[in-house]
Amino acid sequence: MSAPQESGGGGRGAALTTVPAVRCVGLRKSYRSNGNEVVALRGVDLEARAGEMLLLVGPSGCGKTTLLSVLAGVLDADGGEAEVFGASVTRMRPRQRTEFRLRNIGFVFQHFNLLPSLSNAENVAIPLLLRGTPRAAAVDKAVAELRLVGLEGREHDHPHHLSGGQQQRVAIARALVAEPRLIVCDEPTASLDGDTGARILQLLKDIAVDRERCIVVVTHDARVFRFGDRIAEMLDGRIVKVHDDPKELLHG
């Protein structure tokens, strides 16, 4: 396993990587709930490739969100290995992991997680500000990212002025603004109607998938399966099958 890398974004126009975007080997995670031990991950083995959108599917409680959180460095694993573009997030110390996450991982949340007191551009600029980018430069980059997701003219409005689909576009812009190499999405269409959810996944596919970037999407929404390059099925804390052709699930 390689040591942590200081990879600074590098999605658009970067050199093609030869290592897997995500690699998990025997990943385990347990936690306690109401005095009982809950085993969330039972030895997960999984690889995701640069240049693809991998969908992670399975019933509620099977460990999908826990796996996403370990990959993103939000949760510690109890055992096994998890690598992101060759850097072992499971071996990093907390401060290293925080820095790595800030520079390499973008998040798209189910409920958007936008700050109502900030403008849309200010919300999008947050990852850059956390990295120490001067405020004016961060907001300028955020404005450009909002235009890329189709929100030109709404940069200085506040989130409550937007529809649910538009708020999710702001969340996508925030996830992309620092040009992360891995983008993780936790049920990004759950709060949206079917047509809007499909547009959100198509938007991610159009502007975020490139040869040096990977997107992992946790979803229950079979209507968006067609947007995945591959689909990994999870059950009881394990990956039970990876479908190279999403049509296997669509027509199964």
List the helices and strands and how they pair.
Elements lengths: L21 E12 L2 E13 L4 E5 L6 H8 L7 E6 L2 E2 L5 H11 E4 L11 H11 L4 H14 L15 H13 L5 E5 L7 H15 L5 E5 L11 E6 L2 E6 L3 H4 L2
What does the model show?
The protein is of the alpha/beta class. It has a domain at 51-70 and 102-250: Rossmann fold (3-Layer(aba) Sandwich), CATH 3.40.50.300. It contains seven helices and ten strands. A six-stranded mixed β-sheet has the order 6-7-8-3-9-10. α4 (135-148) crosses α5. Mean pLDDT is 89; it is low at 1-17.
Outline the biggest β-sheet.
6 strands, mixed
What is the terminal-to-terminal distance?
Answer: 37 Å
Strand content: 25-35%
Reading the helices and strands in chain order gives: EEEHEEHEHHHEHEEEH
Structural class by secondary-structure content = alpha/beta
Strand order of the largest sheet: 6-7-8-3-9-10
Kindly provide the radius of gyration, computed on alpha-carbon positions and rounded to a whole number of angstroms: 18 Å
Ranges where pLDDT stays below 50 over 5 or more residues in a row are 1-17
Number of strands: 10
How much helicity do the residues have? 25-40%
Oligomer: single chain
Proper CATH architecture of the domain at 51-70 and 102-250? 3-Layer(aba) Sandwich
What fold name stands as the CATH topology of the domain at 51-70 and 102-250?
Rossmann fold
